[in-house]
Specification:
The protein has 15 helices and no strands. It is mainly alpha-helical. The longest helix has 52 residues.
């Protein structure tokens, strides 16, 4: 599954690279090199994976009790904040200190979601409605709105996912909300892309795929075949509306494939590492495109030669930025995220010890 997570992160990289670098040059790679995916659909597929993985760890690692639920929240907070806060500080101290000063001067409706991520997706949706509002993010971190949705899902997951009834009720409600909003607005970022009630169904699809797999186990070939179907349907969805039937056929097929892909790859340390690296790539890629690419691209021989056919030229540049993003993402994962997460665990552990001692004294 690690390769799938990496691929989805790279789809986001490629789409943002198209918008920021290729389109101003009159270049484009099209969607077929991304297997019919775009940045928006990639995010929804990420949510499906998140739903599946959280469902798995809640069943296997965190029993249904208060202590385990606390440990689950702790692990998720360390995973998300250990890198996000580093990138936040990097943007604040290195890239544009004035931007962060503006965020913190604009009041708690901006700086609290900006720092802790809860509610950040709602702020993006309605902070400047009907336009998207990204004024609460430091430079290069607009894409972190998705972490607000992730954090909201983590918050309710221990209570919802352990009840099939609650899961199905919430799935139906979310599907109804989404159907109504699509009917009224079509694809509208504020309501059908950032709005948590209309996207929680994608997390729940991932969870339900694991539940179904526990009850009905198909041959591995059939399970992996669902992944092929997902690719097929997404290729058919190119140039169609976001909420097309092909998109839903693709994402349901994808969800059904996850238990089989996971079983085949869960013990592969290299693939797991690449999957973990996808988070770093997702967080840092805009900074790479905006600040690093202009510095290095004039010195890359293939790019200096401008007489390539347009599509080939676009593909060459895209391949290079993908390699750079992967390389820097791996370095950030190894050098930054792992060490910062370790520090966070130690600090959290010391805080727990002090609280425990205070409780004993009292």
């Amino acid at each position: 599954m690690g390769l799938i997570r990496l691929f989805l992160a790279l789809v986001v990289v490629i789409d943002h690279f198209r918008i920021i670098v290729l389109h101003p040059q009159g270049l484009d790679t099209g969607d077929y090199i991304k297997l019919g995916m775009n940045a928006g659909s990639s995010v929804m597929f990420f949510f499906v994976i998140s739903g599946f993985l959280i469902s798995y760890v809640l069943e296997k690692k965190y029993p249904a009790n208060t202590e385990s639920t606390y440990k689950f929240y702790k692990s998720r907070a360390i995973r998300i904040y250990s890198l996000y806060w580093v990138m936040y500080l990097f943007s604040a101290l290195v890239i544009n200190p004035e931007c962060v000063h503006k965020i913190w001067s604009s009041g708690p409706l901006n700086y609290l979601p900006s720092l802790f991520l809860f509610g950040v997706d709602w702020r993006v949706s309605f902070g400047d409605y009907p336009h998207e509002y990204y004024g609460l993010f430091p430079i290069g971190l607009n894409q972190a709105w998705t972490l607000g949705s992730e954090m909201a899902f983590y918050l309710i997951a221990p209570f919802v996912l352990r009840s099939l009834t609650a899961t199905l009720v919430l799935l139906i409600m979310s599907a109804m909300v989404r159907a109504a909003l699509v009917h009224v607005f079509g694809f509208f970022e504020s309501w059908t892309y950032h709005f948590f009630p209309s996207i929680i169904l994608f997390f729940l699809l991932g969870h339900l795929s694991r539940v179904v797999h526990n009850k009905i186990r198909l041959p591995n070939k059939v399970g992996i075949g669902f992944l092929g179907l997902a690719i097929f349907f997404m290729m058919l969805s190119v140039n169609r509306i976001f909420d097309s039937p092909y998109f839903y056929l693709g994402i349901v097929s994808f969800a059904l494939s996850l238990p089989y892909v996971f079983e085949l790859t869960k013990n592969n340390r290299i693939l797991n590492f690449l999957g973990d690296t996808s988070y770093a790539i997702y967080l840092i890629h805009v900074m790479i495109i905006v600040y690093i690419w202009p510095l290095i691209s004039p010195h890359i021989p293939f790019i200096a030669i401008s007489n390539h056919p347009k599509f080939v030229f676009a593909c060459i540049q895209t391949a290079i930025i993908v390699c750079i993003a992967i390389g820097i993402g791996i370095l950030v994962e190894i050098i930054v995220e792992k060490h910062v997460a370790s520090v966070f665990r130690k600090i959290w552990g010391l805080a727990e010890q002090k609280i425990a001692r205070a409780c004993i004294i009292n």
